[in-house]
Amino acid sequence: MPEAFILINTTAGAEAKVVEVLKEMEGVEEVHVVYGTYDIVARVNIDSTSKPKEDVTWRIKRMSEIQSTMTLVVADS
């Protein structure tokens, strides 16, 4: 199953809430709060057979506490 890393910016002070939601979300394998340009990094499994609106990356982007994301799909590991 393809993997991706999602770099996430949250609204101020929402990091802990977003982390808890992400940890419970199907397809999310790891979640880390980080320092730098982004607030959170999540490692996810991408189901290439699902409809885009049902994909984990779409569900993450729809959270109201998330301001922006950048998705990096793993090419080779």
Q: Could you tell me how far the N terminus lies from the C terminus, measured between alpha carbons in angstroms?
A: 12 Å
* Total beta strand runs: 4
- Spatial order of the strands forming the largest sheet: 2-3-1-4
The secondary-structure class comes to alpha+beta
| CATH architecture descriptor text | 2-Layer Sandwich
Secondary-structure element order, as H and E? EHEEHE
Give me the CATH fold name: Alpha-Beta Plaits
Mean pLDDT: 89
Strand content: 35-45%
Largest sheet: 4 strands, antiparallel
| CATH class descriptor name | Alpha Beta
Give the structure's gist in a few sentences.
By secondary structure, the protein is an alpha+beta fold. The protein has helices at residues 15-24, 56-61, and strands spanning 3-10, 28-33, 40-45, 66-73.
